[in-house]
Amino acid sequence: MRQLRAKGLSLGQIYDETNVPKTTIRSWIKDIKLSEKQLEKLKSRTQKALQAGRIKKQKQDEVLKLNNEKKLLQKALSKVGNLSGRDLFIAGIALYWGEGFKNRHEHRLGFCNSDPGMIKFYIKWLEKSFGIKKDSIIARLTLNDSYKDRTEEIGNYWLSIAGLKKNQFTKTFYQQTKWKKQYSDDNYHGVLRIHVKDSLDLLISTRGFIEGMKLNVVK
């Protein structure tokens, strides 16, 4: 053990070599002085071991985090389950309340969002809750001016998402505002605005649906 220490091995390395209890090793080697080079080597080894330990802990924590997220997502998915017709109706009202066009000067249903899942949900709400046909939908794409050269590509993306035809899209609107955050070419698709033709009566009814939701809050 003393020879191993004289070579510059750490307490842990000597234990690995001899399997002698560390308390015993410590008492037998305490008088052995290591050179500056040996001490520096041990210090470097300790730092590397600590760093490796931190990395290992981070990976373990990440696995635990991902597993927990997976369990929570699965639990949430099972809790929602399949939406009934009324479930869809109520969820759609809440969605329109948050994202729909409600200005008193509006004369038809209007909705805009950049989330493809939300756009799909809204169109399903129109179809299932009110019997709106897709050919009654008019869409308009809004893009930042810096993405003008990708208009056709992004337009085709929304055609696929919404399940609409090209002639249902009006002229693209370009915003000339400066972005506060940058998007990669893969995740920027602008905003899609959707209007329903001849839907004044349904717009008025939707305003009533929203008021009904509000009344439930104060009960």
Helix and strand arrangement:
Blueprint (H helix, E strand, L loop, with lengths): L1 H5 L4 H8 L3 H8 L6 H45 L4 H15 L10 E4 L2 H15 L6 E8 L6 H12 L10 E3 L15 E6 L3 H19 L1
Parallel strand pairs: 2-3
Antiparallel strand pairs: 1-4, 2-4
Helix pairs in contact: 5-6, 5-8
Please characterize this protein's 3D structure:
- The chain has 219 residues and is α+β, with helices and mostly antiparallel strands.
- The protein has two domains: 2-60; 85-218, no CATH class.
- 58% of the residues lie in helices and 10% in strands.
- It contains eight helices and four strands; from the N terminus they run H-H-H-H-H-E-H-E-H-E-E-H.
- Helix 5 (85-99) packs across helix 6 (116-130) and helix 5 packs across helix 8 (200-218).
- The mean pLDDT is 89.
